[in-house]
Amino acid sequence: MTAIPDTEALPETATNARRVALIVAIAFFMQLLDSTIISTSLPQMGASFGVPAVAMSIGITAYMLTMAVFVPLSGWLADRFGARNIFLLAIILFTLASLACGFSQNLTQFVAARVVQGLGSALMTPVGRILVLRNASKSELLNATALITWPALFAPVVGPVLGGFITTYLSWHWNFFINIPLGVIGLALVARFIPGGREADPKPLDWPGFFLTSAGLACVLYGLERIAHPEDGVLPTVLLIAAGIVIGWLAVRHLRRAPHPLLDLSSFKVLTFAISTLAAGTIFRVAINATPFLLPLLFQVAFGLSPVDAGMMILAYFVGKLGMKMVTTPTLRRFGFRSVLVINGLIASASIMACAAISPQTPQALVIVLMLIAGLSRSMQFTALNTLAFADIDAAQRSSAATLSSMLQQVAMLFGVAVAAVILNLSQIARDRPALDLVDFRIAFLAIGAIGLVAALRFLALPPGAGAEVSGHAPGN
Known about the structure:
Layout: E1 3-4, H1 14-37, H2 42-49, H3 57-81, H4 83-103, H5 107-135, H6 138-169, H7 174-177, H8 179-193, E2 198-199, H9 207-227, H10 234-257, H11 271-278, H12 280-302, H13 307-323, H14 325-354, H15 364-388, H16 398-431, H17 438-458, H18 468-471
Antiparallel strand pairs: 1-2
Protein name: EmrB/QacA subfamily drug resistance transporter
Main location: membrane
Domain Major facilitator superfamily (MFS) profile: 20-467
């Protein structure tokens, strides 16, 4: 299919590709900052609404489920109405919903605002990726992907610290109001610098595919989220995940047979996309996403550190992630995707397993060095995976591929937390102890690291020249 420009498209230059990626990154930063900043203010919000702090989790759940429902629709909307238009709509919805969250007077109003915020977020991530893919040539894709990856590395660093400061010295309302200037800036930049376009022959909406895909994804994600809260009951969790798997199977069956499927599954026939998203990539993301969940618990529960001291330890982990951005591109150009994903994957997995060896008696300098190594290797692996996923995707597959990638990353994120929580709980039950101990965390880190090792070795299935057109690597050199 060809694109019909809404405005005169800018030339496909490296400068334009970087500019589009940077603008998309600003929107992603607003979205991810909101996700990390809210956790620090839940007790104060609960007190303001007159409900227990634990009841505030419904705001997070409503946001997550709304995202799950509407993410599958984002690619079709981008093709039908233009990726830039939908991206503008996503920013508007997210910004206005942030304003509504800040002005909420009770829990009902807050949940309603979070639903709208979740809709904006569902459209923002996959459509932002589509914009980057459409405005970057293959030789520019690596640098563009690195730019839109930095919000995921930077927001977790500043979010909790900024949220704690705002909640303490201003009020929880400003944790949402901070999105307003970011949203306005993002809107102005998108309208001014990102060219518009829509598909010449958009497909009709596949309603059965939409309902099946959304319902299956929502059930799986909600079930995985509940695993981290075993006090809510095991049976509903199992039923949700089982229902999600069955509905997901029906969705795949429908998408493979429908004349105009909501999502084009042919992307999975592309080896680089399949391995970096569905197979080894998802498994590795499970291991990587479990680590930020385990580390704060390790330092506070097993080491007995205060939240502030634990935060300083974790800061080294995220600083390491930021530091790797400067060397990722030349490393991939020198060694290629296959070698980097295997070797760096082994290093990342080993650093996770090494967390099982530290204790309160371990010198702080060694712990910080370990956090830096873990953060550095995680950053390189994420950038390599996110870039390789689209290295061989053609224009007709971009919308569906970006949507599928976003869906699988959501599953991997929650599955990582769920697996870590299950391992901790099973270890505690096996030891018949009333509380978690250091040994439970050691078992969890070893198990999660082992999952990463298996995934890293799976990248050997890639050919030596995989993604060479994107990385600039010459196989055999």
